[in-house]
């Protein structure tokens, strides 16, 4: 095992706890930034280009038939193959936290459409689910099992917010363990089935799951209810006959009490367990090898890398599996730094270069990484551009289209999912296209008041005809809140000075024009 130091060349960072990495044919892609995506990369998916000891993030695009994919932190994801021997695969993404700290219950399938030196295109499709749909959650795992020529995904564990009826102002964002139910999802029909197994008594989150064929092994995890890290090792076997599926669970000896660990696959039957916590205040610096053979699991301790003093003494760490036996690890920078979200990164390679070339990916793996949900307790703010140097093998790719946050505006103010006004009712989780020109983002228009700000056309009650007319005409637009203010601030037209006449002369001119009866009544009212 070798540890490569990664030194940052900029104080900005997109990589924050809760991110995910996708590996398509040896190319690593980043997903799950903490803030909303910027305009230069609206998908929030980046290609990690390692070249000449420098790692750059290049934005990826989605195909026209793709759905909207929010940046989700702490989701569950794994690869989906048509069968256990297939070389082609997709990624399944389920659950996770949005930048607004809302939890998602949606399932997405992401596949690589096109990859060349200048552009990467993905297709993202939302999967419609029915039946016993798992509730919105994060910190859980998802795996795919293969049995009798069929495939199903298995969802287990995680955390969710307390029920809406039990929420109070003080406990609005309090989380609880999800029930220890096992969910099977049929991808062909989108049908979900839940199973309650007596061996699974407590809810678990931030655990590790490794799958092979029709069996899933669940290791470690943290229980909020008991504040314990489970030392148990669970073996879940899924049989998929012509009728109803059969799910069984067996508790095995030899488990490890750990949470938030990372698993990477080094060979067809071998995995490496890295990182995590063995208690709330103690990291786990020991590494293990997991071997799956003949429907059995074997866990042995292996030599750990030479951890740097910064890693040994830091309070928390986070990271994710890069695939091909490599792990990206991060630790927070010292508090004395000017930028609070400055992190240090390392690339841990769990096998030699020769093994890396011969490695072939055939087994399923899913590991949920976190720092015991640091998103609720650490001061990390919205993400920005990230570029750092590393001692790693480089890819033969072009330098063009590198992401640079300085080329764009702050999406926190001009994003599509902002609260544009006091009457704004656009919610990313419930929004549906309103205008015929909308696809996966709401139409917006610039209000010219002051320095200018963006508002949703739908919130301004603009008709589609008016919206098209404003977009084509070179005129200034003012939103509903500033249109009256704009009128009041207009400079009045210049008028001539009025001559003031003496009061007596005014009375004489007035009385001369009146008839006698009117004159008397007027004088009476005037001098009363």
From TrEMBL:
GO cellular component, one term: nucleus
Localisation per UniProt entry: Nucleus
Main location: nucleus
Binding site for Zn(2+): 420, 424, 447, 453, 456, 459, 479, 482
Keyword Nucleus: yes
Keywords: Chromatin regulator, DNA recombination, Metal-binding, Nucleus, Zinc, Zinc-finger
Location of the Recombination activating protein 2 PHD domain: 415-492
GO molecular function annotation: sequence-specific DNA binding; zinc ion binding
Pfam families: RAG2 (PF03089), RAG2_PHD (PF13341)
GO biological process: chromatin organization; V(D)J recombination
Family, as annotated: Belongs to the RAG2 family.
Name of protein: V(D)J recombination-activating protein 2
The species this protein was found in: Ardeotis kori
Taxonomic placement: Eukaryota, Metazoa, Chordata, Craniata, Vertebrata
């Amino acid at each position: 095992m070798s540890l490569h130091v990664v030194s940052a060349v900029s104080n900005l960072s997109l990589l924050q706890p809760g991110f995910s990495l996708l590996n398509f044919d040896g190319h690593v892609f980043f997903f799950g930034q903490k803030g909303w995506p910027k305009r230069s990369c609206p998908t929030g998916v980046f290609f990690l280009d390692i070249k000449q000891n420098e790692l750059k993030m290049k934005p990826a695009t989605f195909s026209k038939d793709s759905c909207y994919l929010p940046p989700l932190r702490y989701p569950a994801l794994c690869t989906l193959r048509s069968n256990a021997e297939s070389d082609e695969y997709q990624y399944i993404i389920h659950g996770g936290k949005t930048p607004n700290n809302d939890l998602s219950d949606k399932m997405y399938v992401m596949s690589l459409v096109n990859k060349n030196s200048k552009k990467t295109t993905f297709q993202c499709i939302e999967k419609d689910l029915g039946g016993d749909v798992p509730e919105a959650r994060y910190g859980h795992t998802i795996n795919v099992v293969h049995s009798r020529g069929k495939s199903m995904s298995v969802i287990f564990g995680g955390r969710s917010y307390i029920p809406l009826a039990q929420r109070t102002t003080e406990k609005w964002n309090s989380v609880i363990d999800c029930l220890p139910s096992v969910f099977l999802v049929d991808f062909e029909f989108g049908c979900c089935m839940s199973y309650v197994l007596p061996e699974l008594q407590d809810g678990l989150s931030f655990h590790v799951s490794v799958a092979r064929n029709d069996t899933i092994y669940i290791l470690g995890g943290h229980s909020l209810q008991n504040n314990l890290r489970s030392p148990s090792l669970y073996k879940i076997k899924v049989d998929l006959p012509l009728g109803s599926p059969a799910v069984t669970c067996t508790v095995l000896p030899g488990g490890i009490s750990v949470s938030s660990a990372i698993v990477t696959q080094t060979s067809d039957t071998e995995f490496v367990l890295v990182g995590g916590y063995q208690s709330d205040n103690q990291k786990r610096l020991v590494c293990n090898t997991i071997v799956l053979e003949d429907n059995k699991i074997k866990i042995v301790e292996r030599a750990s890398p030479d951890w740097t003093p910064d890693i040994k003494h830091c309070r928390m760490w986070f990271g994710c599996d890069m695939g091909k036996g490599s792990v990206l690890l991060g630790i927070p920078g010292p508090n004395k730094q000017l930028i609070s979200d400055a992190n240090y990164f390392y690339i841990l390679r769990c096998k030699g270069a020769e093994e890396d070339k011969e490695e072939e990916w055939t087994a399923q793996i899913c590991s949920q990484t976190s720092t015991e949900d640091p998103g609720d307790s650490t001061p990390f703010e919205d993400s920005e551009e990230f570029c750092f140097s590393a001692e790693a093998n480089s890819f033969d790719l072009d330098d063009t289209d590198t992401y640079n946050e300085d080329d764009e505006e702050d999406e926190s103010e001009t994003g599509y999912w902002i609260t544009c006004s006091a009457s704004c009712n656009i919610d990313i989780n419930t929004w549906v296209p309103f205008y015929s020109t909308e696809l996966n983002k709401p139409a917006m228009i610039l209000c010219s008041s002051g320095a200018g700000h963006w508002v949703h056309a739908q919130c301004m009650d603009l008709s589609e005809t008016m919206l098209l007319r404003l977009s084509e005409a070179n005129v200034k637009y003012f939103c509903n809140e500033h249109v009256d203010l704009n009128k009041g601030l207009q400079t009045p037209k210049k008028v001539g000075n009025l001559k003031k006449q003496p009061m007596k002369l005014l009375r004489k001119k007035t009385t001369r024009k009146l008839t006698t009866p009117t004159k008397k009544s007027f004088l009476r009212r005037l001098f009363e």
